[in-house]
Amino acid sequence: MFAIPCPVALQARHRPGAPAVVAPARTWTYAALDARIRTAQHALQSKPQLRGLSIGLLPRRDVQTLAWLWACWRERRRVVLVSARWTPDERADALQMAGAATCLADDDDALPAAAPMAVHPRSRKAEDASVQARSYASTLQLQGDATVIFTSGSTGQPKGVVHAWRSHFYSARGAARVLPLRPSDCWALSLPLYHIGGLAIVMRAALAGAAVALLDNPVRDWTTRRITHGSLVATQLKRLLEATDGPPPPWLRGLLVGGGPVPEALLDEAFARGWPVHTTYGSTEMASQVTTSPSGAARETLATAGHVLPYRELMVRDTGELAVRGPTRCRAYLTPTGRTQPFDANGWLGTGDVGHLDAEGRLHITGRVDHQFISGGENIQPETVARALQALPQVARAVVVSVPDEEFGARPVAFVEPTPGTAFAPGCYRTGLQGRLARFKQPDRYLLWPSDLPPSMKIDRALLTKRARQACD
């Protein structure tokens, strides 16, 4: 199988009046979304600056971005997704790395004037009847490059992860085994589309004939609109629980929570209040989820990342590093020095994450290979220390980094965000860790969580390490 019908085109043919995109003020049916896609296809064919193989896209969470995505895929173009949080120069560097001569954006501020590519406005005009009468491709090529999604780059130079549409297709199919979608369902577009977690929502909804919800208020909309599914990072779940009382609305059936460790206290509260949380582990390289906990999971299972999903394979190497492969795996990396394929002879990709599978086949993530350090001859995994801190009732969030030490080589320093209503109290944290952690693992110093830490899907460990070293000088 090398091509499949575009799921949006299929829904437009068989269920034209079904909702595809739901916004607070308007709903676009599958027929209306398909019309927008066809208009975007016409632009890709007719405008000279849009004829390149790679098309840059500065995505917004709106219907026009979705139309451009599907149009590019139908026209066999590779979509290079760039972050709205990057500077113009960073966007230009990423687009140049991916060979995109044009970027679809809202305005010319998306790129510096000196950038070697054009900026094409994302048209919001009504569909032209003459355009709609023409015939356009309505299939998707499963092989070949379809997307370039950049990793967060929190520990170094961002890499472009290249996926075929095949990866996204099998990712959505495997996810549906644990969290099935019905045509009447609605998945909130709660993550940015330049992250794999956001892009995966679009794929899952279209393949199921469900709707995507555009949020007006990221907290209120969960309880006032009929949203059945969502994907959140821990911070978003925390805000949602803080803003609501009691159980979830009756129509909410599933919340994927990933993107990093979830504090135990947060899981305790969500579980006690009956929120339908699914813990998950995934990566950009594997087109989103690799493992996920099932519906109605026991609290013990929610403390893990769940079981491996269909169309994925996971192996724990002798070093403890996790390796992955399968139909959802990426095709290559794009770096400033060229395209690379970092797979071994059997197709396994090392993730850099450390973990293990328990007797039930559930995945436990314990840290990162590149975060571990040696202190006085002993290995310390910072994530283990952070989890012990976050188990204390006085700690809402913690990150542990290492700083140089003349005697031991390196020592842990912890950044702590106190729980609401409690004060920053290093002495209390030290006392709380006694009996929980070996003495050599306990932080030498505690620092208050920075109020100016830039918002991001993932914690900027490089920035926190720099600040810890400055504080300890």
How many domain modules?
A: 3
Largest β sheet strand count, sense and barrel closure? 8 strands, mixed
CATH class of the largest domain: Alpha Beta
CATH architectural arrangement of the largest domain = 3-Layer(aba) Sandwich
Question: What structural category characterises the helix and strand content?
Answer: alpha/beta
In round numbers, the mean pLDDT is: 89
Q: What is the gyration radius calculated from CA atoms?
A: 23 Å
The overall strand count is 28
Q: How would you summarize the topology of this molecule?
A:
Layout: E1 3-5, H1 7-14, E2 19-22, E3 27-29, H2 30-46, E4 54-57, H3 63-74, E5 78-81, H4 88-97, E6 102-105, E7 118-121, H5 129-132, E8 139-141, E9 145-150, E10 160-164, H6 165-178, E11 186-188, H7 196-208, E12 211-213, H8 221-224, E13 229-233, H9 234-243, E14 254-258, H10 264-272, E15 277-283, E16 288-292, H11 299-302, E17 307-308, E18 313-316, E19 321-325, E20 332-335, E21 338-340, E22 349-357, E23 363-368, E24 373-375, E25 378-380, H12 382-390, E26 395-405, E27 409-418, H13 426-433, E28 445-448, H14 461-472
Parallel strand pairs: 2-12, 4-5, 4-6, 5-9, 6-7, 11-12, 13-14, 14-15, 27-28
Antiparallel strand pairs: 1-8, 2-3, 9-10, 10-20, 15-16, 16-17, 18-19, 19-22, 20-21, 22-23, 24-25, 26-27
Helix pairs in contact: 1-2, 2-3, 6-7
